[in-house]
Structure formats: structure tokens, C-alpha cells
Amino acid sequence: xxxxxxxxxxxxxxxxxxxxxxxxxxxxxxxxxxxxxxxxxxxxxxxxxxxxxxxxxxxxxxxxxxxxxxxxxxxxxxxxxxxxxxxxxxxxxxxxxxxxxxxxxxxxxxxxxxxxxxxxxxxxxxxxxxxxxxxxxxxxxxxxxxxxxxxxxxxxxxxxxxxxxxxxxxxxxxxxxxxxxxxxxxxxxxxxxxxxxxxxxxxxxxxxxxxxxxxxxxxxxxxxxxxxxxxxxxxxxxxxxxxxxxxxxxxxxxxxxxxxxxxxxxxxxxxxxxxxxxxxxxxxxxxx
Amino acid sequence: xxxxxxxxxxxxxxxxxxxxxxxxxxxxxxxxxxxxxxxxxxxxxxxxxxxxxxxxxxxxxxxxxxxxxxxxxxxxxxxxxxxxxxxxxxxxxxxxxxxxxxxxxxxxxxxxxxxxxxxxxxxxxxxxxxxxxxxxxxxxxxxxxxxxxxxxxxxxxxxxxxxxxxxxxxxxxxxxxxxxxxxxxxxxxxxxxxxxxxxxxxxxxxxxxxxxxxxxxxxxxxxxxxxxxxxxxxxxxxxxxxxxxxxxxxxxxxxxxxxxxxxxxxxxxxxxxxxxxxxxxxxxxxxxxxxxxxxxxxxxxxxxxxxxxxxxxxxxxxxxxxxxxxxxxxxxxxxxxxxxxxxxxxxxxxxxxxxxxxxxxxxxxxxxxxxxxxxxxx
Lengths: 288, 378
Known about the structure:
The structure holds two protein chains of two kinds. By secondary structure, chain A is an all-alpha fold. Chain A has helices spanning about 1-30, 60-65, 70-100, 105-115, 120-135, 140-145, 160-180, 185-195, 200-210, 215-230, 230-235, 245-255, 260-285; strands at about 45, 50-55. Chain A is built from 13 helices and two strands; from the N terminus they run H-E-E-H-H-H-H-H-H-H-H-H-H-H-H. The model of chain A has no long low-confidence stretch (mean pLDDT about 90). By secondary structure, chain B is an alpha+beta fold. In chain B, strand 11 and strand 12 (about 265-270) form a beta hairpin. In chain B, helix 3 crosses helix 4, helix 3 (about 105-115) runs parallel beside helix 5 (about 150-160) and helix 4 (about 120-135) packs across helix 5 (about 150-160). Chain B starts with a helix and ends with a strand. Classes of the chains: A mainly alpha, B alpha+beta. The interface of A and B includes residues 191, 195, 197, 198 and 200 of A.
């Protein structure tokens, strides 16, 4: 009884806040675009003699597969998210390790410092980077004053600025799961490795690193998944050229008012993310 | 065993491990206070002590996991100062076993050899050899979480021996096992120590474990060695009240040495209100204050008749408590007389109990022989 309740609560949550919206979005994706409010034709239509007719429009999905514009946007979004997640991992791992190995009384303040940026608005923080990175910004000002450069660097509105912004914004999501994993490691394992002749860096590679793989995967996914659909950071910091899926979605939805196509884009993105992860989890569970 | 003892007494033979004045402080607390100890090649040496006695600290100094603040450690003539743990020819079996959870049994055992860059064929051969030594053939591909406690202990031992260390350190290796398993593992450890000939230093708080396994042992208290010797030496001739009561149990009485004759001493004990006769020459001169230790199992207990009274080596009291441990009775006897001192007496249970030879509140006489009483040097 108790078990059922415990299991039912998250399932109910998932059904109401994930499954139901997804079904709605998916049903819009199969609809025909139309003038009006809402701007799409209903899936079920009543023909003259009172029989309901289900009309599925596969055209939107077909378009996604055929038009390289959308495929490119997907590919580029996945690449940007992958590189950003790797950058977060490279930066976040040493941070998480340092916090996990710090004396116990230092760990909470250090973790708090990692989470501190969440206390100010996300938009504000990203906008602040514009002030830092722009041609007449603080960074260029400082570099010019130090005499390291003679002309301002054009960083803002480039890929570099976009990666910087995404890495900055999502770093805590990498540090927290990694820390949670690393802090649980038994220190006796490292002593045993040293005792058996492993130099500190080899002990790290052979013991700490493999044991932290679950933390790395969790952190990677927590950064990668939201970064794929990221709209604000590329919009504010990135260049105008390349289209990411976030912007494509926005354009289809608000500028073209093509809700069915936007819904198809969103559904395809979700499936493209969920299926490989589910497959990976299933294989990991089987390997164990 | 006998050759070992001879080697130890021969001043010409250099000890294999020499610990000289090793000190370790944590803030104001001294974990080790100038420990001097020599251990010979092939010994099975036990460091015995309660928690906080410094025994584990000393072991970790030997492993190189912590650096002593002062003193020297010489292993096979080589000064270990500044030699980090990963370069010492010393391996340790950890209390928690510290097996690598992501590696199977074979990779755990081969871990140390792999660090040296040993060829794969040698690693495979040695792993097989070690698995056979600890009787774990057929478990090579298991992960640690698939093993029982006893099997994990065997793998930990095999891993620590795989590099053929000069010195094997064992940190409370059997404390996680239940009693029967612990006993069989004690024999196993002895067998393995004899087959490999490796010098073992084991840390334990279990005096029975130290007594059964070790060729020699050191009793530690508050960062210092209290007594070093063979189990029999330390048990039969404890040098202090601490050792007498730590290794086994002992009744300890205070008194003054009254007379010393060639065949023994007479100690007048105010505490007991009677004289204690002890065999042999006491370690202290006539007229000095001394402590006498008498082990509970070397005392006899019997119901007293109304006219029984105290005499030399003969106390009279009342049974306050009886503990039945299956193989022995443990009596708590409150002595008659001024102090009301409580002593412990054990008696083997020779027959199935239908009737207790001595019962609660019985008036009893407790007697002992002259050789049971030992005058302590400290």
C-alpha cells in the first residue's frame, strides 16, 4: 500500500506535467496549419453523417527530414551542446574534486559559492557578459590597458562568446552531481592504490576517475540536455549566422505562427534526446 | 620458531625492521611517543592495544601513509624517511580491505604488479599463484561486491602479498568477520605466513588473536610500548599492572615486600588483610611497596566451613555474582575484612551443571599456589 503511494506520486507527476503536455504537443505536430485561433486544424473532424474522421498530417515530420535547414539546426545544436558539456566537464571536474577533498568544514561554503550565481537572474548574468565581452567592454579595456593587445578583440557575437556563456551558465549542473559522487569515495582506496605502488596521478586515473563515471554521466546529461534547446545564450552572446534549434523553434512558433511545424520540431528533439539516453540506461543496467 | 628465537637473542644478527624513537603528534596529542622496536625477518609480530593506543598510527608510519614527526624507521638496512608509500617495499591489508569495487578479483590482485609495469604473463602467473595461496581459484572474474566477507579478506590478503613485499602490514584484518570465520582465518594467516616466509606485522585489539597468531607481540598504551615479548612471556610475566590486566585478566593486590628468601617472597597486603607468598626472587627489594598479580584461572574456589578463616594465600569472601560462559564459571567474590575488595575467580565447568558447586551468596575460600602469584616490576 505504502509502496504504491510512493510509486504513484512521481508517476502522477510525470503523467500530469510531462506526458500530458507531450501528448498535446505531439497531437499538434500531426495537425494541419490553419488560419485562426488556435492556428491549426483539429485532428478529429466530423464528416456529414456524424462519423469522426482522424486526419493525421505527416507532412511536418517529412519536412524536418527533407529540409537540410532543420537537420543542420539539429546537428549544430547537438554539437554545441556536446562541446559545452565537455567544457563544463573539464572545468567542473577539478572544481568538484577540490571541494570533495577539501576539509569537511570548507565543503558547504564552497558548494554554496558554486550555487551562488543562481541567486541572481539568469538573464541578468548573461547580459552582464555582454558588458564584459563587447569591443569597448571590461575585458578589452583591461587587455588594452595592460598592453597585451593594441586593438580590441571581437569576442561578443562569436561562437567563443556563446560557448563561454553556456559553459558559465551550466557549470553548477556539472559540479553538483560530480561532487555528490566524488565525496562518497572511500579514501582508503587511494591509500591502497598508493600502498600498491601507484603514483598519485596513476591512482587518480585508475581509481578515482573510473569510479566517478556515473557522476560524469549525470553531470554531462544535466548540461547537455538543456543546452541542446538553449535559446537565450546563443541569442544574446552568439553570432547571427548559424541557426540553433532553439531559435528555429522560436521563429516557427512566433514569427511564422506555424504551430504544427514547431511542435514537430520539439517532439523530434525530445525523441532524439530521450531514445539514446534510454538505450544507454538500458544497456548500463544490463551490463551490471 | 626456535631458530627465530635464537636469531632474536643473537646480538650479531641485525633486525630486519628497526624503529627508533618514532614520534607522531596531532596537535597537543601524542599518538606515538618515542617508540623503539626491533622486528626480525620472518616474524609474525602483533601490535596489541586498545583504541587510541597508537598501534594503527605506528602501522601507518611503517606503510608511509603518514610521516612520523621524529625518529627513524629502517627496513632491511634502508632508511624509510622520505620514501613515499608508493615506493616502499611494504604492503598493507586494510581494515576495510579497500578492494577496488570497479575491478574484478584478478585485477585487484594484479594492481600492484601493473604499477611496476610487470609483463602481462608475469602478472597472470602471479595472480594465479596468489589465488591458489588464498584458496580462491575460480573467483578471478568476480567483483568485490559479489564476494562474502571472508572471501574479500582473502582477496585483500592476496593483493597485499602479490608484489612479494618485504613487510606485510595487517590492520585489524579480521575485525569484520564473525567468530568462527575469524578463527579459521587466523589459522589461514599463520599458514600463509609460514609458506611465504614474509615478515608480518599485525595490528589488533583482540588479545586472543594476538596470542594465537603472533610469534612476538608488543602491548601498546597511550602511544608507547608497554611490553614486548612472546605471547607466553607477556602472559606469564607481565611487567606492569596494565599488561597484566590487558592481556588476559588479573587480580591485582597492593602490598609491602616483608621478607625475601631464596625460594620466594612474603608480601603483606593490607588490602587483602593477609600475606601473599610468591615464588622466585621479586623484582623489588625488601621493604618496598609492590603490586602482585594473580590470574583468575590460577585460583581455586570452594565452599567454606564456618571455622575457615584467612591465611597466607587463602582469602575468604562471599560470592556476589556468577557468570556462566559454558566452558567456565566466572565468580565475583567480595572478600571479608576491612576493604571488601572484589576479586575474580574462574573455574572450568568440568561436568554438565545440574547443581552449582558454589552458589550466590555462598561463603567461600579462595586459594592459590605460590607460583600463581607474580610480583610486578612496576
